[in-house]
Amino acid sequence: MAEKIRLLMGSDKAGFDYKEAILADMQSDDRVEVVDNLGVMSDDLDASSYPSVAIAAAEKIAAGEADRAILICGTGIGVAIAANKVPGIRATVAHDSFSVERSILSNNCQILTMGQRVIGLQLARRLAKEWLGYAFDPTSHSNANVCEIIDYEDSLTD
């Protein structure tokens, strides 16, 4: 059996309901080990901000504590922007099957983000499962593009 994907789940208040539904799916998925549940833990008024959730998830991935994350906010945009500020992270909003596929196969994204206010729950659940089924092929043509992104990012810290 292949090694399980170490997955983080997270949301702010605007993504709480979808995070809970997808988290339940992930906890019963044999391909996954959910290693952390970040952000809002109940539907209350004391909500974590989307940047704090996204940055925490991205930092854990960058540190090697997890392989991937699924983050939910109102639109998916805010958590993607915040996660992408962490060096070494590639996060994307994807609300359709083709984008979910290409986020891994063309871009080796570690973080999938979605918006509770812009996508139906059943589609979000399906896309999360699909996303976990893809693996980046470092021998593919796309590897050169991913390496170019990494090289540019590395040049910023030199």
TrEMBL record:
InterPro entries in the record: Rib-5-P_Isoase_Actino, RpiB_LacA_LacB, RpiB_LacA_LacB_sf, SPI_LacAB/RpiB
Spans traversing the lipid bilayer: none
Gene Ontology MF annotations: isomerase activity
Keyword Isomerase: yes
Name of the featured protein: D-erythrulose 4-phosphate isomerase DerI2
Keywords, ordered alphabetically: Isomerase
Family designation: Belongs to the LacAB/RpiB family.
